[in-house]
Design a protein that fits this description.
The complex is a heterotrimer of chains A (342), B (502) and C (233).
Chain A (H helix, E strand, L loop, with lengths): L1 H23 L23 E5 L6 H17 L3 E5 L6 H9 L6 E6 L1 H8 L10 E10 L2 E5 L8 H11 L4 E4 L6 H13 L4 E4 L3 H9 L5 E4 L5 H5 L3 E6 L14 H4 L8 E8 L4 H15 L2 H9 L11 H22 L5
Parallel strand pairs in A: 1-2, 1-3, 6-7, 6-8
Antiparallel strand pairs in A: 3-10, 4-10, 5-8, 5-9
Helix pairs in contact in A: 2-10, 2-11, 4-12
Chain B lengths: L1 H14 L2 H19 L5 H8 L8 H26 L8 H12 L3 H37 L2 H15 L7 H14 L3 E2 L6 E2 L13 H22 L15 H5 L2 H16 L4 H16 L11 H25 L5 H12 L6 H6 L1 H29 L7 H20 L2 H17 L6 H24 L11 H22 L11
Antiparallel strand pairs in B: 1-2
Chain C lengths: L5 H20 L16 H24 L24 H28 L4 H22 L3 H19 L1 H15 L5 H22 L12 H12 L1
Classes of the chains: A alpha/beta (342), B mainly alpha (502), C mainly alpha (233).
Chain lengths: 342, 502, 233
């Protein structure tokens, strides 16, 4: 009896502590998960391998590094990252699918896997051919201009200037047909009725350099990737591609403000395991990666990449829902764009 | 003298920190060793070390990479000279004259010249980098857009096309083959799959690291195997007699010319040290009174190529640090090091982390100086690799190359590409085609197509748009003149550069 | 015929055939791109046409001048053309070409068999291992007749099987194989040197530098590879 009351008391105390912690730090999505999880049959008995289908320097490389660090801190299991860049993420996916599905290999991937499947259904569907462990970054895009550009200084004057150029204005964007970036630009140009030449850059650095050097008039990007340029006062956003304004960009017009009526597409990055992996191992991995999301080191990393402006977390079911709606959304657009959907 | 004070502060910070000193010397020796072991290169080391830099402070991580960069470019010259296996594409022209010198028993002289010239080129470039990073970077970023870079690629291909080939046409066929290999994978505008031959891994494209390892390292081993098979294998002669100061002074104009070329090429994003070395070598031949001596073991060939590629190292740091724009594979990995510490190279680095920048600058300066001292000692050790019986050295080089090719992208297709390039290179070296030309075409082809597409989009598909861009126009005209000149030479001039008959 | 030889015609023929085949292949990816009117195939086609032009130019020059070196600059240091090549008769080329097909057979044939039998799970692994063994057998049988051809082929076989069998299981055999091709015949130094090279590599790359080499996707090689890595790290 006594023990039970003690337990009840302490749990109340813990709850109060948790509550005060919540006030001090923002609540984290997986705080309610247990802080330790028994290993199923000793799994993992050795280091995990994380396949990253992009190079170490880009957004995926960084999120893989941040998550691997967080999971290792949490579980004491080390994670070897193996970068297999190329083919817009398809090559790393192929290599991952060929490896034994024993749960020792996990995959980092982004929304490109969903749009690739939407365009060509022979490519793996991340919602059904893989088991999502966690989605740990969800972000939105913005349109940027160079600070000090005298030709325009906000979204309205930008649109006016672009229209006056009669299709000769330029914006730096990524290169892949049917990608989130290109589809979103299509939405924008259709909604505003403006014509703008997109310039294809498949790597980030030259894309930003083109705006710095005045080779292009504007840039399409996600805020986390150009944070340095924003903090240094070199770029400034003129449109946030979201329905509402996030707090950090309170003075930048949203889609609603600009009178653009379409559902924004998101850039999301997450971690996956092969669908044939043993269920008990998957359960442990889900716990480790979801709990890893709330490790202070990971949260700090996400904050530095503007990943705290909209909810960046989805668990397995949430990720599946996100992927499925995304694929439907893309298929719809591809039809209107006249792209061949296989 | 603001820069000088900053440099002094950087130096004091660097050498007052025991961990810093340790990392500095590990970088110097590691870069030289990996550069100098046939089959791996500084890029292998950099790819391997990248994940570890997370455990270092940002200063140490960036410093380590910049030191590896300086010494690795030098180290790659050693294998180019001793084994005809350039450690990196920028060392390929070094092998043109360096390896014949080894066969003639003048390995020490060639390596000695590489040591001296790498140190000189690197140090001068480093000094200019310290003085001029900010203004040069600002000029380059606005003056050099895609049309200019495309024009520069065209110019580079036009002047460097016949390096290493027996005839004008063979030179161009080699370059074109390289350009075509660069097309494999996704197209740079729409991400459309090209020439994948139903092998999905080919979608990643063909990387230049496995290709160069195959063409140079693997095919060299096959060639030696053939020589062994018919009993004409001769172990290269060893020598450690370094060139005298007077011999080097005789080539002072080649050195100065290569520094200018190397520095200019190095600044430009994406072009980097490879074009620098090819152009430095090419100009040396063009200005020479005895051009027929090149390719047969002429000291000036080694000097001009090694000075130019090291002069590009300091220059390549300028767009990286000032603008966050990497110029080549190794500087791209440096961006990775920055980002592992939640930093981005770029204009902010100079404001937020001026200390770091100056520690890196002074580390690069002393790395170049230390090439002089450690280079001599190391060379005397490395040269002993020539003593190992070839049947034992061969599997080691092949496996090192396997690791080297795999470590860059983690794709087994790269190993297959490497060994296939080795077989192709083995057949091509009998034929008068230039494998160095294929590699140059492969590297510049990717940049060339991408910047061409961007330029066309920017100019709204109107070729006349080049007329409004004086730098691009100038480079295109210069390239065209060079091209027409060599066509004229190939068809109408007879034996222009044959040695005078005795 | 000027100074033209049969070899020159064969050379030009190879280039032009290559150009034709690749040009036809470009229609496979001749897709329009919304924001780029030249599309995905204009650039490769331009290169292919230039290549055909250069091949014809070379033929004309060979017709006028034969094999004379006309480079504005140099004859490459790597150019062994002057030496009389020992292995250059047609029989040798054919037998080498045959050997070189073995690694590419491994990249394709097992997939065909798997598709044909619609095999799944561990049967796939068995098929791949059996194919590997058969192809290695063919290689060893023909190896002694054309040692140089075998030397050219061996690394490709190694590379083709690396993803399935893994570096850790395959490399020791590869080292021994290369030494054999290079003329080493004594078993004792071969095994000792192989062990030395392999352990040095493992020590440097796996133990000290934590490089992730391919462990192999097929059991039991996958388990062997993973075990080696776990023990060393």
């Amino acid at each position: 009896m006594k023990f039970k009351t003690y337990l009840a008391k302490t749990s109340v105390a813990f709850a109060t502590m948790a509550l005060s912690a919540n006030i001090a730090y923002a609540a984290c999505a997986t705080d309610n998960l247990p802080s330790a999880q028994p290993k199923p049959d000793g799994f993992p008995a050795r280091a995990l391998t994380m396949i990253v289908p992009y190079g170490p320097a880009g957004g995926s490389g960084q999120v893989a590094s941040g998550m691997a660090k967080a999971v290792s801190e949490l579980t004491g299991i080390s994670i070897n990252r193996s970068h297999k860049p190329g083919g817009s993420g398809t090559v790393g996916m192929i290599a991952f699918m060929a490896m034994p599905a024993d749960g020792y290999t996990v995959l980092e991937h982004i929304d490109d896997a969903s749009s690739a499947h939407a365009l060509d259904s022979s490519k793996p569907n991340p919602a059904s051919d893989l088991i999502p462990l966690v989605t740990s970054q969800i972000t939105f895009s913005q349109i940027y201009m160079r600070v000090g550009d005298t030709r325009f200084n906000d979204w309205d004057s930008f649109v006016k200037w672009i229209k006056a150029q009669n299709g000769r204005a330029t914006i730096a964007n990524v290169s892949k047909e049917g990608s989130m970036e290109r589809v979103t630009m299509k939405f924008i140009t259709d909604a505003t009725g403006m014509k703008i030449q997109q310039i294809s850059f498949d790597k980030g650095a030259p894309r930003y350099g083109a705006l710095v050097g005045g080779q292009v008039d504007a840039l399409f990007e996600q805020p986390g990737d150009v944070r340095t340029f924003l903090d240094a006062g070199i770029f400034k956003p003129i449109l946030t591609i979201l329905k509402t304004r996030p707090s950090a960009f309170a003075d930048v017009p949203s889609l609603t403000d600009a009178g653009l009526d379409f559902d924004p597409l998101y850039r999301f990055r997450g971690f996956y395991v092969h669908k044939d992996a043993p269920a008990d191992r998957v359960k442990w991995l889900q716990w480790a990666f979801q709990k890893g999301f709330c490790q202070p080191s990971y949260q700090k990393f996400n904050d530095s990449k503007y990943m705290n402006l909209i909810e960046s977390y989805r668990d397995t079911a949430g990720t599946r829902e996100l992927i499925t709606t995304t694929i439907d959304q893309y298929r719809e657009v591809y039809k209107t764009m006249g792209l061949k959907v296989k | 003298m603001d820069a000088f004070n900053n440099f002094l502060t950087g130096t004091v910070t660097l050498f007052s920190d025991p961990m810093g000193v340790l990392i500095f010397f590990s970088g110097v020796i590691g870069g030289m060793l990996f550069g100098a072991i046939p089959g791996v290169s500084m890029l292998t080391l950099a790819a391997i070390l990248l994940p570890f830099t997370a455990h270092l402070s940002p200063e140490h991580g960036i410093m380590l990479f910049s030191v590896i960069y300086c010494t690795g470019v030098y180290g790659g010259a050693i294998t180019a000279i001793l084994f005809n296996i350039p450690g990196a594409p920028e060392n390929a022209p070094t092998a043109f004259d360096g390896y014949p010198m080894t066969l003639k028993g003048q390995a020490g002289k060639a390596v000695g010249a590489a040591v001296m010239c790498s140190a000189i080129g690197g140090t001068v470039s480093c000094i200019i980098m310290m003085l001029a990073t900010a203004p040069i970077a600002n000029w380059a970023i606005s003056a050099f857009g895609p049309p200019e870079i495309f024009a520069l690629v065209f110019f580079g291909l036009a002047v460097a096309s016949s390096v290493g080939a027996r005839t004008f046409w063979k030179g161009w066929l080699s370059i074109l083959a390289g350009l075509l290999i660069a097309v494999v994978g996704l197209d740079p505008v729409g991400g459309i799959e090209r020439f994948d031959f139903e092998m999905p891994y080919l979608l990643a494209g063909i990387h230049f690291i496995p290709t160069i390892l195959g063409f140079f390292a693997v095919s060299e081993i096959f060639a030696q195997a053939e020589k062994k098979a018919r009993g004409s294998f001769i172990a290269p002669k060893m020598s450690v007699d370094f060139p005298s100061l007077a011999e080097l002074l005789a080539h002072k104009w080649a050195v100065i010319r290569s520094i200018v070329i190397g520095f200019f090429c190095g600044i430009l994003p994406g072009i980097g040290a490879t074009l620098a070395a090819f152009m430095g070598y090419n100009e040396a031949v063009r200005w020479s009174k005895t051009p027929w001596e090149f390719g047969k073991g002429k000291l000036e060939g080694v000097i001009s190529s090694e000075t130019a590629n090291n002069a590009a190292t300091g220059a390549a740091m300028i767009p990286l640090l000032a603008l966050g724009l990497p110029g080549g594979a190794l500087t791209a990995m440096m961006v990775g090091v920055f980002q592992m510490h939640d930093m981005e190279p770029g204009p902010l680095v100079f404001i937020n982390s001026a200390d770091l920048v100056w520690v890196v600058f002074s580390a690069m300066f002393f790395a170049n100086i230390s090439i002089l001292f450690i280079g001599y000692i190391e060379t005397k050790t490395i040269i002993n690799l020539l003593r190992i019986p070839f049947q034992y050295l061969a599997p080691m080089i092949l496996l090192l190359a396997t690791v080297g090719a795999y470590a860059v992208r983690g794709l087994t297709i790269d190993i297959l590409v490497m060994f296939l390039a080795g077989v192709i290179g083995f057949f091509l070296r009998r034929s008068g085609y230039s494998v160095a030309g294929i590699v140059l075409g492969l590297i510049l082809g990717k940049i060339g197509e991408q910047t061409f597409a961007q330029a066309m989009q920017m100019l709204h598909f109107e070729w006349s748009g080049f007329l409004d861009r004086p730098i691009a126009l100038g480079l295109l005209i210069a390239g065209l003149v060079a091209l027409l000149g060599s066509i004229y030479g190939a068809f109408f001039k007879k034996k222009r550069i044959q040695p005078p008959m005795a | 015929m000027g100074k033209l030889r049969i070899g020159h015609l064969v050379e030009a023929g190879i280039w032009l055939t290559l150009c034709l085949v690749l040009f036809i292949y470009t229609f496979e990816f001749d897709q329009e791109i919304e924001i780029y009117k030249y599309g995905a195939s204009a650039w490769p086609r331009a290169i292919i046409l230039l290549m055909a032009f250069a091949a014809i130019g070379q033929l004309i020059q060979q017709w006028q001048r034969g094999d004379e070196s006309t480079s504005n600059f140099i004859v490459a240091a790597t150019d062994d053309g002057a030496e009389e090549a020992h292995h250059s008769d047609l029989k040798w080329y054919l037998s080498t070409f045959g050997l070189l097909l073995i690694p590419f057979a491994y990249l394709r044939v097992p997939n065909w068999i798997v598709a044909l039998l619609s095999a799944e799970g561990s049967t796939v692994h068995v098929i791949r291992i059996v194919c590997a063994l058969i192809l290695i057998g063919i290689f060893i049988y023909y190896m002694r007749r054309n040692l140089l051809g075998a030397m050219l082929t061996l690394p490709l076989i190694f590379a083709a099987m690396l993803e399935d069998i893994g570096f850790y299981s395959l490399a020791p055999f590869f080292i021994v194989g290369v030494m054999f091709m290079m003329g080493e015949r004594k078993a004792k130094p071969m095994i000792m040197i192989a062990a030395l090279i392999f352990s040095l590599l493992m020590l440097l790359f796996v133990k000290i530098l934590y490089v992730g080499l391919p462990v192999g996707n097929i059991r039991p090689f996958y388990d062997i590879g993973s075990w080696v890595v776990t023990v060393l790290q």
